[in-house]
Amino acid sequence: MVTEARLLGEAEMDALALGAWILGTGGGGGGDPYYKLWNVKLLCREGRSVRLIDPETLADDALVAIVSTMGAPLVAQERLPDCHHALRPVRAMEAHLGRRFDAVMSMEIGGGNGLQPMMVAALTGYPAVDADGMGRAYPELQMTSFAVAGLPAGPFALSDIRDNDVVITNVVDTDWVERIARRITTEVGSTAAICMAPRTGAEVKRHGIPHTTSQALRLGQAVQHARREHRDPIAAILEAGDGRKLFTGKVVDVERRTSEGFLRGRARIEGLAADAGREFTVLFQNEFFLGRLGERPVVMTPDLICVVDAVSGDGIGTEAIRYGQRISVLALPGPEVFRSAAGLAVVGPRAFGVDLDYVSVFEATAP
Amino acid sequence: MVTEARLLGEAEMDALALGAWILGTGGGGGGDPYYKLWNVKLLCREGRSVRLIDPETLADDALVAIVSTMGAPLVAQERLPDCHHALRPVRAMEAHLGRRFDAVMSMEIGGGNGLQPMMVAALTGYPAVDADGMGRAYPELQMTSFAVAGLPAGPFALSDIRDNDVVITNVVDTDWVERIARRITTEVGSTAAICMAPRTGAEVKRHGIPHTTSQALRLGQAVQHARREHRDPIAAILEAGDGRKLFTGKVVDVERRTSEGFLRGRARIEGLAADAGREFTVLFQNEFFLGRLGERPVVMTPDLICVVDAVSGDGIGTEAIRYGQRISVLALPGPEVFRSAAGLAVVGPRAFGVDLDYVSVFEATAP
Q: Which of A349, B220, B279, B323 lies at a C-alpha separation of 20 to 30 Å from A183?
């Protein structure tokens, strides 16, 4: 189904940020979209808006910029994002290609990266494509539907927060983009704005994850609506996202370290109410990738593991999860493409160093 | 004085390699030029040659490619160099600039990098400029006369041994080129071919170190001549290079480690003949940067510290110096520009982590 183009203003940006932060599974382009949201809102208040277009309306030969912030979430919360920085790798890529882009879209809809194309779009007037390459957030660059489809990994552009712009003009594969770009990102301070390999309209239509911006908007609006109506935001998320609640409890312990450009660690949660007496652990590499009830793995990547505030339904990031928070652990289904053999090779449990065969939480018996 | 253009064939390449290896002060673009020499010689045997031109004959707006191998010498001796790899960053830079180069020259005349422009020149027909940016070899990219002069540090191109090409299109300064390029080089295996910021003819004439290719040729030919005449090659080097012999002895201990993309360590030498009973230590970071007689520093960067075989006069690299070798430690004077305050800030002892004021071995009393 092709949806009409729609204009996103300040109100939609609020909902988008809320929804993207839930889909971020704890991370995504610097984690909490709050600062990026404010950058876009300020542009909206200057009279700008963003035109969100359906991927099916792209011409086959249209050229789409795939944008993102790369780095460790904790760092991106210290160095505030800005729209002009987000635009820099796009301009570097255009200079390299010798032509302008026709549209911009997110590498990942989750977390701050859900807002990244909005920053560029609001500044340039490029339309934003209602799609992304992950349908959530993942920590590494090769974890996209485009990489699973075997599309070219380069060229690739990266800009740090100073005046350093780097273009990887030729590259062996997406793993090498990740290795080289991760090293550069670490050296420049573990945060960088990037523009990934340009995709044609035909490639976005064939291999992108469609309508994920709308999905984030819908999730965010459901939470907003529930809050206005004094209903349970968690129930609203589960209904809007076809999700399942796995656990509710209090965070009692967090291990967290920033290494090799990633934020890694785990959080332990003691059950409350119906979950009293049980313990749940979530493991993360920028994003949550595994959840254990006691010692038993019950939910794992590529299913979305969403940790949200048990009362407000706000996303909680791996950089911010802390002792004492009352949280709910939810699972949402991810895009089909990542549950294929090729998809699991790139984003399954073993891609995160966990020796488990993927079992969907939606197919297993309830924990 | 402007010299005539001259054609370099196989015989000149032999002499150039010999001389460049002495000027390499233990390193320079992968250390021992032997493998690069053979690459160029094979092209010469196919009927190619290299036209060596005086920098003064460059048009002011000519564009010169500054080429080099970057990495740890030990690694470059395991992964053999080839001319097509040396050319790749030059082509990447040309694609970035949208124009062809007019000539090619060495970032550093010392070691394998003295041959680097010859590899590119023999393959492309570009003339090689009789000049470089160091007058020797130094371990880091910002240690050039162009950086001391404050010329722009970018753009910069790097190619690994696979098919990864990276262009730093904008950069804050040469320190940032070094930091970013060193991280990439380390990630791709501690060896890469690079093309540094392009220089105009006017810049090369004003800020390059002139006639260093000729100097390497002259040194090499002096050694070849001495060997043919059964005279002492060491004396020939000292005469051709205005040098001073500091020590002769046997290597008794070597510490060596490859870290952060560099080869670091030290070698201890026990005196022989006139130096019997004394001990000399040379410290290195890819290249030799400090020599101590007993505990007393007697020679230091930017003076050239050349360790050569005591009999043949062949250069000995920091990657190859080993127990039992009979060696002579020679000092040769370096380019004036590096003895200025701006020069010493970039290549003086403190740039190598040694808290010493530079004293020229040629001005101090003999050890």
A: A349
> How many beta carbons lie within 10 A of that of residue A257, not counting itself?
11
* Prediction ipTM score: 0.88
- A206 to chain B nearest CA, in Å? 27
Q: What does the alpha-carbon distance between residue B57 and residue B60 come to, in Å, rounded to a whole number?
A: 9
Residue type, A256: R
- Res B365: pLDDT: 61
When pLDDT is averaged across residues A15-22 and rounded to a whole number, the result is: 97
Question: What average pLDDT score do residues A79-89 get?
Answer: 93
Q: What is the pTM of this model?
A: 0.90
8 Å CB contact between A268 and A279: yes
Q: Which of A97, A158, A166 to mutate to test the interface with B (most CBs of B within 10 A)?
A: A166
pLDDT in tens, B114-157: 999 999 999 999 999 999 999 999 988 889 999 999 999 999 99
More confident: A80 or A123: A123
| Of the options 2.40.390.10, 1.20.1070.10, 2.60.40.10, 3.40.630.30, the CATH number for the domain spanning B237-352 | 2.40.390.10
The single residue listed with the structure tokens 């010498």 is B73
Q: Do A168 and B170 touch (CB under 8 A)?
A: no
User: What is the second-level CATH architecture of the domain A233-352?
Assistant: Beta Barrel (2.40)
For A6-212, the fitting CATH number among 3.30.980.40, 3.40.1610.10, 3.30.70.370, 3.10.20.30 is 3.40.1610.10
**pLDDT at position A300, please?**
97
